[in-house]
Amino acid sequence: MSFSPLLFDASFEFDFSKYHANPYKKGLMAAAMEKSKRIPWRGILALIGGFLIQLTLGSFYSFGNMMTYMTSYMRKNGSPNLTYGDFIVVQSVWGITQGVIMPLSGFIIKFLGVRQSMFIGCTIFSVGTALTYFTLNQSLEYVALTYGFISAFGQGIALIPTMTIGMRWFPNRKGMAMGVVVGGFGGGAFIFNQIQTVILNPGNISPDPDDKYFTDEDLLSRVPGLMLILGTIYFIIQEFNSYKTILLKAKDTENKKYEFKIEQMLACCMVTEPPQTNEHIQEKLAESTNTDEDTNDCVDRNDILMDDQTQTIEDFVTPKEALKCREFYMLWLTRFCAVLITQTVSGFYKAFGQTFIADDHFLSLVGAVSSVFNCTGRLFYGLLMDRSSYKVAMLLEMTSLTILVASLPVTQWVGKIMFATCIWLIYFTFPGTFSTQPAVTTQTFGHKYGGTIYGFLFTSDIVNNFLVGTMSHSILQAGGWTAMFLVLALFSTVAFIITLLFPRSPNPELIKSRRPQRLPVLDPDVQANRPTDLNQSNTPILKHEQSEA
Predict the structure, then answer these.
(1) Residues 290-305: b if buried by 16+ CB within 10 A, e if exposed
(2) Predicted confidence band of residue 176 (pLDDT cuts 50, 70, 90)
(3) Distance (Å, rounded) from C-alpha 24 to C-alpha 223?
(4) Is-contact 409 481, C-beta < 8 A?
(5) What does the DSSP assignment read for 528-544?
(6) Would 541 be classed as within a structural domain?
(7) Among residues of the chain, what percentage have pLDDT more than 90?
(8) How far apart are CA 66 and CA 69, in angstroms?
C-alpha cells in the first residue's frame, strides 16, 4: 500500500492550521506558558541545591554508627581504655565549634560572599573527614580536632546561606522552604550509615558480648580507609557536573552581580539569590506598599522584602537589640534543650542498642531509616508551622519528645521492634526545632538580620555539648541508661514550659511596642535657634494655656 505525499502533506497542513485556529486551545497554551513563567524555577533549583549541600553536611548524624567502629579501632591501636563515654567528646567538640562559628558565620559570609562561603565550607568539611585517616592512629584529641573541629568549622560556614536564600525565594512559604532544605541535613545518615556498614562490616559481625566493642581484625583494619572514602564521596557530590553551572546564568546579563563562574560546585551553583527583577518579588512589593511609586524605582532601591542587608520595607530588630529581648532567650533555651536531646540520642542510640541487640546490621539499619524520619520530620514541622504557628508546632514536638525519650529504657525489656520504633519517632520529632526556628527567628526579629540572629542561637550548642561531653560518662556510671534518658525527658519538659510563654504571633512591631518612647532629638542648628520662652515664638498661646501659666 502506498500513500500520496501530496494528500499526506495537505491533510497535515489542514490539521495543523485547524489546531491553531481553535481559540480555546490557543488560550490554554497561552495560559500554561504564562503560568510557567511565573514559577520561580531558579528558586526551586536553589532549594534542591541547598538540599544536596545539607545532605553531605548532615552525614554527621551517622556519628552514632561510626562511634562504635572508631572507638573499637582506637582501643586496638594505642588507646586500650577508651570508652564510648569518652569518645562522645568528639561530638561535643563538633557542637561547641558549631556554637562558636555560627554567630560569626554572618560576618564570614558577608566578607567572602554567599556562594564562595558555601564552596569553601563544603571543601573544609570534606578535608576534615579525610584527615581523620591519619589522626585515628594518634589520640582522641587529634580525632576531635579533625573529625570534630575542622569538619564543624566547614559546616558552620556553609550551613546558613542555604537556609536564608531558600526563604528569600519563597517569602510566603518560609516553613516549607526550610523543611525542604534542612531535610537534606536530616537525610544524610540514610545514605552514609549504609555505606559505612557495608564497607566495614559486610559479614554482620557482632561486637564482643562482654565489653560490647568490636574486636575483629579485618573489620577494624578497614576503619581508617573509610575516612578517605567518605571525604572523597562528600567532595564528589559537591563537585559533580560543575560544568552545568553556566545553565544557571541569569538572563539579565546587564546585572553582572548575577553572572556565575563555571568553577563552582553544582549544588552551590544551584543555590542562587533571587534577582531583583523576579515577578514574585515585584508582586510582594506591590502588596507591601499603597503608594503609586513606580515598582522599578523600588527595585532599583533594592527594597526587597527578603534582602538581608538593604531591607527597608519591613521593620526589623538589630542583633544588639535582639540580645535585650526575652523572645531571643526563650528561643535560645528551647534550642538548648532540643539539641541536648538530639546530640545524646544520636550519639548513644547504637551503643545503647548493643546492650540487648546482637545484630550490627539491624542497628545500622535503624540509624539509616531514622534519617528518613529526620528528613520528613523537618518538612512536617515546617508545614505545620505555616498552617498554624511556631508555638503550636513546638508544643507538639516537646510533648512527643518527653514521652518518647522517657520510654526508651523500657525498650530493653520489650525488644528491638519497640527500640526501633522509639528511635525513629524521636528522629521524626526533634528536627522540628531546626526547621521552625530559622523561620520564627526572621518572623520575630525581621528578615534583615534574621540569619545573623539565628546564628547567635547556636551559642547554646557550646553549653549543651559541653554538658554531653562531661556529664554523660558520670550519669552512665551512676544510674545507667535509665538515668540518662530520664534526665533528657526533664529537659524536653522545660522546653515545653518555655514555649507556653512564647508569643503566638511574634514580630518586630511587638518588640518595638515594648520599648520606652523617646522624644525626637532636634538638629543642633535647629536647637540653637529654638526660642527658650514660648512668648518669643510665633506660635499663638491659647487662653487656657495663659490662665494655667
Answers:
(1) eeeeeeeebbeeebbb
(2) confident
(3) 66
(4) yes
(5) HHS-SSGGGSSSPPPHH
(6) no
(7) 33
(8) 5
Euclidean distance between CA atoms 58 and 162, whole angstroms: 13
DSSP per-residue string spanning 53-87: HHHHHGGGGGHHHHHHHHHHHHHHTT-TT--HHHH
Phi-psi region of 218 (alpha: psi -120 to 50; beta: other; left: phi over 0): alpha
Q: How far is CA 385 from CA 167, 422, 472, in A?
A: 14, 24, 33
Looking at the structure of the chain, the number of domains it has is 1
* Maximum pairwise Cα distance, the chain: 116
What is the tens place of the pLDDT at every residue in 371-391? 888 878 888 998 899 899 999
In a domain, 525, yes or no: no
In whole angstroms, what is the distance from residue 200 CA to residue 69 CA? 8
pLDDT attached to residue 112: 84
Judge if pTM exceeds 0.85: no
- Residue 14 belongs to a domain: no
Q: How far lies 371's CA from each of 103, 192, 273, 397, 448, in Å?
A: 27, 10, 28, 17, 32
CATH of residue 151's domain is 1.20.1250.20
Would you call 308 helix, strand, or coil by DSSP?
Answer: coil
Residue 517 is predicted with a pLDDT of 58
Q: Name every residue whose Cβ is closer than 8 Å to that of residue 418 and which is 6 or more positions away in sequence.
A: 410, 411
Sign (positive or negative) of CA dihedral 449, 52, 154, 390: positive
Containing domain of residue 61, as a range? 39-262+310-510
**Residue 149 carries which DSSP code?**
I
3 inside domain? no
C-alpha 443/C-alpha 250 separation (Å) is 29
Q: Number of helices (H) and strands (E), helices first, in the chain?
A: 26, 0
Query: Mind listing the pLDDT tens digit for each residue in 22-44?
Result: 565 556 666 656 655 666 777 78
Q: Which residues make Cβ contacts (< 8 Å) with residue 539, sequence separation at least 6?
A: none
Q: Per-residue pLDDT tens for 125-165?
A: 999 999 999 999 999 999 999 999 999 999 888 887 777 77
Lowest mean pLDDT among 166-175, 305-314, 505-514: 305-314
| C-alpha to C-alpha distance for 480 and 470, rounded to whole angstroms | 15
